[in-house]
Amino acid sequence: MTGQQPDHPDHPDHHDFKAAMGSLASGVSVVTCVNDGFDHAMTASAVMSVSLEPQLIAVGVARTARFWSAIHSQRHWAVSILGGAARDHASWLATSGRPLQGQLHRVPHSRGAHGVALIDEALAWIECETKQVVTAGDHDLFIAKVHSARLGPAQSGLVYWRSQYRHLGDPIPDPTA
User: Fold this and answer.
1) Which residues of 45-82 are buried (b: 16+ CB within 10 A; e: fewer)?
2) Could you give the 3-state DSSP secondary structure of residue 70?
3) CATH number for the domain harbouring residue 77
4) pTM here?
């Protein structure tokens, strides 16, 4: 039924809805936090800017995801907005069932002000603190105050579109130059 009007417009077919939303290109980020002495990480395409004053961002996390319990127990977390060079890291950190211990050993990273991992091959890094959690269907939206935002080196962007990672053209000039 893809491409046709649904029989029940108030409740589209699950596959059709997923395919339709897959047509919306989204940036690829890795969200990280530390819980019980372990780094937790999740590849995310549901990261958004919420407000400029105050500076707020949000990330959607499925309540069934292992990452949910980690971010739910921590105030501080970070977002690394990925460029094309980090495609393999995005794939690895999106793999279900990967070992929790040492999951960042193969991913070059540094530590932010609150000890949270920041992926080295990123376009930008945002460190934040949860201020509100909103239940939305089978996900929770973690809304956070931004403590710091830094740009990395200019490179091509990484997006997720129609179930595939894709690069966004040529690198753009450094906006701080």
Assistant:
1) bebeebeeeebbbbbbbeeebebbebbeebebbbbbbb
2) helix
3) 2.30.110.10
4) 0.86
